[in-house]
Amino acid sequence: MKKHDVFLWMMFAVLALCRCAEMIDDNVWLLVLAFNAWVVLAFIACVIAVVLLVKNKLPSKKYIVISVLMAIAATIWYLVYGGNIIVVLLGGGLIAGIPTLLTSLAVFSVMEKTKAYSLLAGKKWYSVLLSIVIGVVVGSLFSYVNTFMYTDMKYNWLSTWPAPAIYEVMAFRAVFMAYCVYFSHDKAMKGFSLFTMYFMMIAPHTVAYGYDLKITVAADVIFGLILAVLHRKRDIASAIITRGVMDMFMLIDGM
Questions:
Q1: For burial by CB atoms within 10 Å, which of 4, 6, 66, 244 has the most?
Q2: Among 208, 195, 200, which Cα is nearest to 178's?
Q3: CA gap 193, 1 in Å, rounded
Q4: How far apart are CA 11 and CA 41, in angstroms?
Q5: SS3 state at 251
Q6: What's the pLDDT tens digit per position in 27-67?
Q7: Whole-angstrom Cα distance, residue 244 to residue 163?
């Protein structure tokens, strides 16, 4: 097992332990304040992003601007959703804005260096259109499947704001892909390293939700795997659109 793979598995173990502690006794989190699984996952994403930025430096000015815009969108969403400046500064800035900025910078930096994946697959209009169509179609299918997995879903216009999808895709999936791609040193990943990349692009995000084992595994297989493949084989944009369409249908309990 390679060192960079071990590092990711150690980070996942920390996340899993945090989620287990929360499931055993919610009062545990009174002792550690706001450090729940989502905060831990955001922190892990930031650590991975910083590692990549230290080793690989910042991306070009174009992608720095895109990263900043993504972070601003993630922060503003908390203002729309929460309507409270404190929520924006603490929730939007610390939990969404900063992770979105750092992970986007890291993802784009590795992307420019390795050419192993892309924000948009191709520059032609029909290629861009294809990514949009893929995202809308796959996201719609996922939403339809969700209606069978959950019975308490409703449409929420706030979720049409794309920021949650950007935040989740960049901080909870793409940065793991970028990390594994960078440490593959331009070689095709095989065996356990390949498994590690896809596992980390799928499992941490679903584990953070805190569903039971059956629902978590189902979400990994049905949703997570396909989203991970879109990241790796198509482009990041199609994954963001897919997740955005899915977010148009939200659980009453706030998924």
A1: 244
A2: 200
A3: 8
A4: 9
A5: strand
A6: 544 444 445 778 889 899 999 999 999 999 999 999 999 99
A7: 8
Q: What is the mean pLDDT of residues 128-142?
A: 88
The 3-class secondary structure across 137-178, one letter per residue, is HHHHHHHHHHHHHCCCEEECHHHHCCHHHHHHHHHHHHHHHH
What is the rounded distance in angstroms from the CA atom of residue 139 to the CA atom of residue 155?
14
Distance (Å, whole) CA 140 – CA 63? 29
Query: What's CA 171's distance to the chain center, in Å?
Result: 4
Q: Is 193 exposed, middle or buried (0-12, 13-18, 19+ CB in 10 A)?
A: middle
Please, what is the Cα angle at 79 between 75 and 80, to 5 degrees? 110
Q: Tens digits of per-residue pLDDT, 4-28?
A: 899 999 999 988 888 777 666 555 4
Backbone angles phi, psi at 49, to 5 degrees: -65, -45
Residue 163 tokens, joined:
């920021």
> Which tokens in the block code for residue 88?
């924006």
Assign 3-class secondary structure to 43-76. HHHHHHHHHHHHHHCCCCHHHHHHHHHHHHHHHH
Nearest-angstrom CA–CA distance, 121 and 124: 9
- Kindly state the tokens that stand for 48: 């991975």
Cβ(149)–Cβ(209) under 8 Å?
A: no
Q: Are 236 and 172 in contact (CB under 8 A)?
A: no
End-to-end Cα spacing for the chain: 35
The single-letter DSSP state of residue 250 is: E
Closest alpha carbon to 241 in 137, 147, 108: 137
Helices (H) and strands (E) in the chain, counts: 13, 2
